[in-house]
Amino acid sequence: MGEIDENQEQTEEEMKPEELPSSFEKRQEARENRRLNIVRAIAGVLVVLSLAYAYYVFSQPPLKVDTSKITTATDTAKKAVAKGLQPGRIYIPRLGVDEAVNVSPSGTVTQEELLKGATFYNGETNKPGTGNCVVFGHSAVTAEHGAPFGAIGDGLLKIGDQVYLTNADNVKFKYAVTEMNEIEATDFSVVQPLGEDALPRLTIITCIAPNYPRDTRLAVIAELQK
To answer: Between the ranges 15-19, 73-77, 80-84, 192-196, where is the mean pLDDT highest?
Structure first.
């Protein structure tokens, strides 16, 4: 037998198939590299977009609001006083109600005034302590307004509850609830002036929650207390 060439034997050992990377492993490695490249590319794009957005936001001039065109309840009250109308405030201790009562300069309640809060019906019914003093207010919260009389619309007010109303001079008048009636939205009989011999009263009109916007209203009658 001839002698075995050690170099040849080593070369054959090195060329064994199990020690060589298979084509499957090569493809798998290539796929992983592509995934990493895609992830790096997406991350780079996100970083660029974030930087661009930050630059845009911080480079914008500050927003200026023309506050001279904003009408507040206080402005409305000032205009009302200038026209001889009396704004006031309503308190219902048991319910925790403490709300300003606006007066419309036009002399009658409007939706615009109701958006600001509780509002006297008109120039003839905004005199606390005399005649039929009528106050309107929302009871259901919406995107446009709050609910000054939410507790009333929910049915939490009771006969005998005390209600206080102040005028522009901060003189307080005490009333006690005597009636609560469901009326049609078109029924304005409850806002009419009283007779000369009638006891002065406060009339509160609001929606009936949670049935809002049903076409009925809740009319609360409270008589002046001596």
So the answer is: 192-196
Residue 1 in any domain: the answer is no
- Count how many Cα atoms sit within 13 Å of the Cα of residue 145 in the half-sphere of its side chain: 18
Q: Is residue 136 part of a domain?
A: yes
From residue 54, alpha-carbon distances to 60, 63, 64, 173 in Å are: 10, 17, 20, 58
* pLDDT at position 76: 47
Q: What is the pTM of this model?
A: 0.59
Mean pLDDT in residue range 6-18: 50
Phi-psi region of 158 (alpha: psi -120 to 50; beta: other; left: phi over 0): beta
With respect to residue 167, please indicate whether it lies within any of the assigned structural domains.
yes
Domain coverage including residue 149: 68-224
